[in-house]
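Pasting as-is:
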Amino acid sequence: MTAAQRTLRSFGAVGAGLFVLLAVLSRWLPGGDDPVSRTLLVALLVVVPLALALVEANEAERPYFAVLAYLVPPTALAGACSILFDPGPLAGGAASLWVVTTLVVAAMGLGRLRSARPEQRAFDLGLAAAFLYLPVGAVWLVLSRFGIEPLGLPSIIVALTAVHFHHGAFGALVVIAVARSRAERTRTWLTAALALAAAAMVVVAIAVTLAPSALGGSGEDAAGGARPLATLGAGMLELAFLLHALALGREVLGRLRHRGARVVIGLAALAPLATMALAALYTLGLVELDLMVHAHGEANAYLTVLGALVGWTLERSAEPAA
């Protein structure tokens, strides 16, 4: 871990406290007092900083991390403030600062694509996908905060897409990549998990985009198109998490030094079992799409992704300093 990454880890810890404070204050602010806004807050203040701190940076990425150590704290705070106020020019302008930070992350992704090692190609491509997905989420955040509804999408769908790319696309891929870096016998499983999760992000995003008229009750065709895609994307993501959990149980957890980290990471890996059940109920038509999207997304965001990042941060803190 570089000095810059230690700065990012420290900001993630501070960000957790700020998230709790802002979540309380949001009750008296125009925006922010809803589950989607809170999920975006935790993404900017905690998930992204902790995830970046856990990535094993190569030599070419070290200068980028040095820049990110300066950019992430102020732009994440600006983005968080934008979430707490009504959409408009002020909120959209504040959120736009976050795009600048994510473009630096995207530059690292492009570097990974160009320099992918033959023996580690799948791993490098999976991590590159995580880096490249983050600015996509940032753009959707900006659209949400400006109050723009592209393609006639409802504001809730615009915000959910921002959540999807911050937590599910970026956060989940980094979690799987970190586990893979600790594995030996189960690396193939985790490589497959990375590929599945990266592909699932696109499928789920398309499904959520097709869903709005169905959520409003006036678009049977859209609902019919969204349901199989949402089921496929959720199934791919859950299979990725299942492979991740099996690899953890078979090998990775036994390698960890920190007992608390072992417990937290293990519990986070089990959380997708509950969302698998929810996805199955949705496939059978027993729950509505909006319930599946909200509950599935929040469970993966808080339990699977955030929980794993906290666990891996504890484990990294127990390692001897390099």
